[in-house]
Specification:
disordered N terminus; 4-stranded antiparallel sheet; mainly beta; 1 helix; single chain; flat; 34 strands; 357 residues; 6% helix
Length: 357
């Protein structure tokens, strides 16, 4: 009898502890968290403007693989997904976000890789090291770049220069060559540019945007990598493609005006925006001239104005939220948060604020 009662008590304790643990696991997935900045100090807050992080930081990056990358007093470390606990001590001179369970960090002038338990998985030996993507990472040693696998074995040619431009595509200049090429995470060549190339603007679903030299001017081009077809050329400006949309810019009377391009239908919209930003949640920030002022609002994919232009500046939508700015009575610009319906979630009061994801 006593044994049965003891077992029941232990089971009850277990259930209670389990419920407490579950309820206490208040993560970014359960709450709307934001990174807020005031007077150069960073902190994590929830949608009720409660501070989540126990201390403020000099910098907080957005959430990556359930870890926040943070900096204080020039030392870098990581918080866990709750934003309240230091998971990796602030001991590194520089760092990158976690990717594929690893992060590149700089310790005493050299770069290597750690896991989420702060265990070194690739020794500190590189002059620079990038994120792991599809089981490979870009590193730099003795002024040359190359790709390594997770076992720290070189898997590509050597490059004089190399930069990640989109998810799993790099732009590289091969050793002893002046011709830039696109390569994948295994070092395989995807596309070769001519010598007038300047820089890439963005890439999505084989649609590549880039800048090139044209006489003494700089122009932009859109091409389809799958067949090499030039979609549009001789543009003054372009935004990166997002959700099969991008914006193109053309100078009119020395003023840059913007229109939208639907990459599915290749429909080219009219030039009617004074400024634009790309977004990830199918709403796009646009600026128009209104009562002699340039004010920002948001349009949908069909260019319907869904959030009226009444803000002095806006940021990109992410995870359903976007930062917006007003000028207060003191003449200072302050930032708050809107949701996709245009409802103000956090009133403008910060020097800047952004969704954690």
């Amino acid at each position: 009898m006593r044994k049965s009662i003891t077992i029941k008590i232990l089971l009850l304790i277990f259930v209670v502890l389990f419920i407490i643990a579950c309820n206490g696991k208040d993560t970014i997935k359960d709450q709307n968290y934001f990174i807020a900045i005031n007077n150069g100090s960073f902190k994590i807050i929830d949608s009720s403007n409660n501070c989540i992080s126990k201390i403020s930081f000099d910098y907080i990056a957005t959430l990556a693989e359930n870890m926040y990358r943070v900096c204080k007093n020039k030392k870098w470390g990581y918080l866990n997904e709750t934003g309240a606990t230091v998971a990796v001590p602030l001991m590194y001179d520089a760092s990158t976000d976690f990717s594929e369970e690893r992060a590149s960090v700089n310790f005493n002038g050299k770069w290597g890789y750690i896991n989420k338990n702060n265990e070194v998985v690739i020794d500190f030996q590189y002059d620079w090291a990038g994120a792991f993507i599809h089981d490979s990472a870009l590193v730099k040693l003795k002024n040359l770049y190359y790709l390594i696998n997770e076992n720290n074995v070189r898997i590509s040619n050597y490059y004089d220069d190399c930069t990640l431009i989109y998810l799993d595509v790099y732009i590289a200049i091969e050793n002893n060559s002046n011709t830039p090429v696109l390569v994948d995470t295994y070092g395989k060549e995807i596309y070769k540019f001519d010598n007038n190339f300047i820089e890439t603007i963005g890439l999505q679903n084989d649609i590549l945007c880039y800048k090139y030299r044209h006489d003494l001017d700089v122009k932009c081009k859109i091409i389809n990598l799958s067949d090499g077809f030039t979609i549009l050329d001789n543009l003054d400006a372009l935004t990166p493609p997002v959700n099969d949309r991008l914006f193109y810019g053309i100078k009119q009377n020395n003023k840059l005006m913007w229109g939208q391009i639907n990459l599915n239908t290749l429909k080219i919209g009219s030039l009617k925006y004074s400024n634009v930003i790309s977004n990830t949640d199918k709403l796009f920030g646009v600026a128009i001239e209104k009562d002699s002022e340039i004010l920002w609002g948001f349009i949908d994919e069909d260019e319907n104005m869904v959030i009226e232009p009444e803000y002095y500046s806006v940021g990109s939508f992410s995870n359903g939220y976007a930062p917006i700015a007003i000028v207060n009575d003191s003449g200072k610009m302050k930032w708050g948060i809107l949701d996709l319906s245009g409802t103000m979630i956090i009133d403008p009061q910060y020097d800047y604020i952004i969704s954690c994801q």
